[in-house]
Design brief:
This protein is an alpha/beta fold and about 300 residues long. A 6-stranded parallel sheet has the order 1-11-8-7-5-6. Strands 3-2-4 form a 3-stranded parallel sheet, sandwiched between helices. It binds adenosine-5'-diphosphate. Adenosine-5'-diphosphate binds next to loops.
């Protein structure tokens, strides 16, 4: 028998089912918060310019909000919006008692720089963790809003019982949205983390040691079965639209399946859990605003 025939079928880590469970839990919390506060829980998506993908994403968040019983609205601003105007919108939402969470869609149109307006967004309403205050908390292993996609990768690993402490983990990609925060979240779970990026000399050599792999490079087929370690667990954060409209991740699934122990599919893996994380953040945002801050958390490595 060849090793391939001996290999048990890889587990497909289903994000859709997990997301449904998370939505149900969040819906109960939203109900309770509404009753407690006597006012709805609201989320605002700020969309600048008319990028089609960003429109799809905004509508998806609205659907997700409706699912958990939250009020959702999209604030559409022209691509000619100035830095001052965008800052005013963010300040107004930050003060608005009916808005508990704000998602500013990135990237902004050319000419607008998120760094010039981000201080006008209340970090306690920053559901997708784009504010440097949240990035700082996450990098220190403390409680704050991590970017939703990065957190979704960790939520999946935890839900499916994948141990992290002490294990070699490799992150492919170092974007602020996924790779960089994933690295910090893995470290908080005491994994031994390596981050690969465009200048990594030998991706295959790094992956050969990886028991847990998180891929977020935006490059279809970048990681395939030939370079994955047998028995590894792979979380694919990639979302690539091929010329024929098919959506695929960064991992070549057919070749990976005969090598890995478990793999998240695209679509149906990290994507739905990302939306569920945003709604979980909305509930946590309501609480953090009521308390005037995030709950304290000891960094994991200093715990017993
Ligand atoms: P995402 O939003 O999915 O994180 P970005 O385009 O912002 O995607 O970032 C892509 C990341 O993937 C970058 O950090 C880049 O260095 C990394 N990357 C791209 N191609 C490769 C490659 N061939 N090998 C390793 N890392 C890569």
């Amino acid at each position: 028998v060849s090793p391939e025939e001996e290999h048990a079928p890889a587990r497909i880590l289903d994000g859709r089912g997990l997301a449904l469970d998370m939505f149900a839990a969040t819906a109960r919390e939203v109900d309770a918060l509404r009753a407690e506060r006597g006012r709805a829980v609201g989320v605002a998506v700020v969309k600048v310019g008319d990028d089609a993908a960003s429109g799809v994403y905004a509508r998806r968040i609205l659907k997700t909000a409706a699912r958990v019983g939250a009020d959702g609205r999209v604030i559409e601003l022209a691509s000619t919006t100035t830095r001052i105007e965008l800052a005013q919108v963010l300040r107004r939402l930050s003060r608005d008692a009916d808005t508990s969470g704000v998602i500013l869609q990135l990237p902004l149109p050319t000419g607008l720089d998120v760094r010039h307006v981000i201080e006008d967004l209340d970090p306690l309403k920053d559901l997708d963790g784009i504010h440097p205050f949240n990035a700082g908390l996450v990098s220190r292993g403390e409680i704050g809003f991590a970017p939703s996609c990065a957190e979704a990768a960790l939520v999946i690993l935890r839900h499916f019982g994948i141990a992290l402490a002490g294990r070699p983990a490799v992150v492919v990609g170092r974007s602020n949205v996924v790779g960089r925060p994933v690295q910090q979240l893995l470290l908080r779970e005491s994994a031994t983390v390596t981050v690969c990026h465009r200048q990594t000399r030998d991706l295959a050599a790094e992956l050969a040691r990886a028991e847990v792999v998180i891929v977020a490079a935006g490059s279809p087929g970048l990681v395939d079965g030939s370079i994955l370690r047998p028995g590894s667990v792979v979380v694919d954060c990639g979302i690539n639209v091929l010329a024929d409209g098919t959506i695929v991740g960064d991992v070549d699934v057919p070749s990976a399946l005969s090598v890995v122990d478990a793999l998240t599919p695209v679509p149906g893996g990290v994507g739905p859990v990302t939306n569920a994380v945003l709604m979980d953040h909305l509930v946590r945002a309501v609480r953090a605003q009521a308390e005037g801050g995030f709950p304290d958390a000891q960094p994991m490595e200093s715990r017993a």
